[in-house]
Amino acid sequence: MKKLISNLGRWGPEILRSRQRPSSELRITDYRSRITGILLLSVLLFLAACSTPKHGLYVKNGALMKNNKPYRAIGANQFDLFYRTLKNNSDTSYRKGLKQLSEAGIPFVRFMCGGYWPSEYNLYFEDKETYFKLLDDVVNAAEENNIGLIPSIFWYFPTAADISGEHMDQF
């Protein structure tokens, strides 16, 4: 991408020089290189837009899809999946819970991906590395059990206002 951007910088002066020539002196190769560049960029954008994710859920023509088929499922709410670990860093009971959900055929869970009260976001603000390590462990356990995750960043919405120092009527 950097090379493409740097080349764009080189093309700018060339385009200016070609515009300074009288129209009778414009070369066909100038047009060919521009058209080729535009076509190449169009093809790359088309291929990027058409690529299908290797795994997981995605939306195609307004429908939720998985493995190229429309997807419908019922998940579970597990409020404290990450919260227990956030309150007690050595608590890994989420592993057992995710295993049980997997055995029951539950494909995904919605969980609180942070604290409930503003004070429970202290670990995030003071030690992001530890916070994300704990969260990564939960995500890895979910992947091991083929459980999808729907994180709710602010389970209790007024917490967002408190953390940002805003009044609720500003949200």
Could you explain how this protein is built, in words?
The strands form two sheets. Strands 1-2-3 form a three-stranded antiparallel β-sheet, with no helix packed on it. It has a three-stranded parallel β-sheet with strand order 4-5-6, with helices on one face. With 171 residues, the protein is an alpha/beta fold. A hairpin with a 2-residue loop joins β2 and β3. The chain starts with a helix and ends in a 7-residue tail after the last helix.
Q: Give the number of helices.
A: 7
Overall geometry comes to extended
Strand order of the largest sheet: 1-2-3
Please state the average pLDDT score. 77
Q: Which value, in Å, is the CA radius of gyration?
A: 26 Å
Largest sheet: 3 strands, antiparallel
**Helical content class:** 40-55%
Low-confidence stretches: 1-19
Order of helices and strands: HHEEEEHHEHHEH
Beta percentage is 5-15%
Number of strands: 6
End-to-end separation? 38 Å
Q: What is the SS-derived class?
A: alpha/beta
Layout: helices, strands, pairs:
Blueprint lengths: L1 H19 L7 H23 L6 E4 L2 E4 L2 E2 L5 E2 L5 H5 L6 H10 L4 E5 L9 H5 L1 H17 L3 E5 L5 H7 L7
Question: What descriptors fit this protein?
Answer:
extended, disordered N terminus, three-stranded antiparallel sheet, single chain
Short description:
With 171 residues, the chain is an alpha/beta fold. 50% of the residues lie in helices and 13% in strands.
